[in-house]
Amino acid sequence: MIKVFVYGTLLRGMSRSAVLANGKFLGNASTSGILHDLSHFPAILEGDGTVYGELYEGTQDKIRELDLIECYYQDNPERSLYVRKEISVISSE
Predict the structure, then answer these.
(1) Helical segments of the chain, H only
(2) E strands of 1-93, at which residues?
(3) Which of 15-19, 38-42, 60-64, 70-74 has the lowest mean pLDDT?
(4) Domain of 69: which CATH number?
(5) What is the pTM of this model?
(6) How far apart are CA 75 and CA 39, in angstroms?
């Protein structure tokens, strides 16, 4: 099982939340960074702020599904809209 921090459209009640409906919700969480509005979707950039989101536990198959939805290409990261990387989070629960 893999833990995933989500924000924006993947949060409960948002437009892409159904993708994680079968995932195990671990609670609210936060990470360091700055949330930017890119008009159609948000992005986190490094910075001194705090970004709030949710923490889930999912399978490798679920991660692959998220990669497809979020346009992350492991074999060609230059084409990706997002970067998938390990980060530190603080659980609010």
Answers:
(1) 60-69
(2) 2-6, 24-37, 42-58, 90-91
(3) 38-42
(4) 3.10.490.10
(5) 0.88
(6) 27
Maximum Cα interatomic distance, the chain, rounded to a whole number of Å: 36
Return the structure tokens found at 87.
């980060």
Domain count, the chain: 1
* Alpha-helix runs per DSSP H in 1-88: 60-69
Order the strands of the 24-37 sheet from edge to edge: 2-6, 42-58, 24-37, 90-91
Structure tokens of 59? 């399978």
| Domain with 53 in it | 2-91
Tokens read off for 33:
């960074």
